[in-house]
Amino acid sequence: MTNSIISLKHIDYSYEDKTVLQDVNLELERGVFMGMVGPNGGGKTTLIKIMLGILKPDNGSVSLFGKPMDRFKDWTKIGFVSQKSNSFNKGFPATVREVVSMGLAAKVGYLKFFNKHHKEKVMHAIRQVGMEDYADASIGNLSGGQQQRVFIARALVNDPELLILDEPTVGVDYQNVRRFYDLLHQLNQNDQITLLLVTHDTGAMTEHATDIVCLNKELHFHGEPEKYTSLTEADLSRIYGHPVHVVKHDH
Amino acid sequence: MLADLLAFDFLRHTFITGLLIGFIGPLLGAFIVVRRLSLIADALSHVTLAGIAFGLLLEKRFAIFILPPFYGGMAFSVIGALLIEKLRSLYHSYQEIGIPIILSGGVGLSVIFISLANGFNNDLFNYLFGSVSAVSRNDLLTITGITMIVTIIIILFYKEFMALSFDEEHATISGIHAKAIHFMFIVLTALVIAASIRIVGVLLVSALMTLPVAAAMRLTKGFKQTIIVSIIFGEIAVIIGLITGYYFSIPPGGTIVMVSIIILLLSILKKSKTTGHNGGVQHGYE
Ligand SMILES: Nc1ncnc2c1ncn2[C@@H]1O[C@H](COP(=O)(O)OP(=O)(O)OP(=O)(O)O)[C@@H](O)[C@H]1O
Ligand SMILES: [Mg+2]
Question: In this complex, is the C-beta atom of A98 within 8 Å of any C-beta atom belonging to chain B?
Answer without folding.
Answer: yes
